[in-house]
Automatic annotation (TrEMBL):
It catalyses: (4aS,6R)-4a-hydroxy-L-erythro-5,6,7,8-tetrahydrobiopterin = (6R)-L-erythro-6,7-dihydrobiopterin + H2O. It comes from Acidiluteibacter ferrifornacis. It comes from the Bacteria. InterPro entries: PCD_sf (IPR036428), Pterin_deHydtase (IPR001533). This is 4a-hydroxytetrahydrobiopterin dehydratase.
Length: 77
């Protein structure tokens, strides 16, 4: 599955074997977000992590920041 462009944002759902793997993934994403100073909107339910990327300070639209963040997240897999 890849990122979907929807409502001026990039969205993707990630599924893992269990909650611990999902949480570990979120921890890694959090480190990337801090390094890039670009933080996702996200939710976690058991083994699923839903991520939405949009650039709020650019009028809630997709920018290079979002594409870079998405690529960095993909690189974790």
């Amino acid at each position: 599955m890849s990122w979907k462009e929807e409502n001026n944002s990039l969205k993707r759902t990630f599924e893992f074997k269990n909650f611990i793997e999902a949480w570990a993934f979120m921890s890694k994403v959090a480190i990337i977000a801090e390094k890039l100073n670009h933080h996702p909107e996200w939710s976690n339910i058991y083994n699923q992590v839903n991520i939405t990327l949009t650039t709020h300070d650019e009028g809630n639209t997709i920018t290079a920041k979002d594409r870079e963040m998405a690529q960095n997240i993909d690189d974790l897999l």
